[in-house]
Design goal:
The protein is an all-alpha fold and 190 residues long. The chain has helices spanning 2-31, 36-45, 49-70, 77-99, 105-108, 110-126, 134-139, 157-178.
């Protein structure tokens, strides 16, 4: 059963990578002056950006807990830093989505940005592009370079985390960008 759940999480990671790639393409098109794809995406997600962010953060948090508590994979030091960036997002995006507070999404953006940076660093260590620090070697069996899963030849735990962080950056940025026109986000006396 554990392997089946790992495969499901890896498939969700691939779907997330496709969505993340589309978000990046839309952002690049908007930066180049083509605003049509961005407007279409805004119409498609309007009002649900934070809910989409919550789903991503909740799946990432649940998957992380599955890996450590059910599959008994020991999280390394870098995994803990990624968790520090992801776990609060599952609670905060739910809270903001429920209250429709899109303006506050801009304050959450540093968490997935830092988490994505840690994930990239973790991937560089895992693929032996850079030397593994000594702290990694003592934090978990095999250190930070241990590939606890390797589905489809590339889908590892840091890859899944990076996918979640990229999606969260996109959804939170969309929510924050739309929040300025949302008069109902905060009380007038706040």
């Amino acid at each position: 059963m554990t392997h089946d759940v790992i495969v499901v999480l890896a498939v969700l990671g691939v779907v997330g990578q496709v969505l993340g790639g589309l978000l990046i393409l839309v952002a690049l098109a908007a930066l180049a002056g083509a605003r049509g794809p961005l407007r279409a995406l805004r119409r498609l997600l309007w009002g649900y950006e934070l809910w989409a962010g919550f789903v991503v953060a909740a799946i990432a948090t649940g998957g992380s807990l599955f890996f450590s508590e059910v599959a008994h994979f020991v999280p390394c030091e870098l995994c803990w830093y990624q968790r520090i960036c992801m776990y609060p997002l599952s609670i905060l995006t739910l809270f903001l989505a429920y209250h429709g507070d899109h303006r506050a999404a801009r304050y959450l953006l540093p968490l997935p940005v830092v988490g994505a940076g840690v994930s990239v660093y973790h991937l560089l260590i895992e693929n032996r592009v850079i030397t593994e620090p000594n702290q990694c070697l003592i934090s978990a069996p095999g250190g930070c370079a241990t590939k606890w899963i390797n589905e489809f030849g590339y889908m590892t735990i840091p890859t899944l985390a990076l996918t979640g962080f990229v999606l969260l950056i996109g959804f939170l940025a969309l929510a924050a960008a739309g929040g300025d026109n949302d008069a109902a986000t905060l009380p007038l006396d706040a």
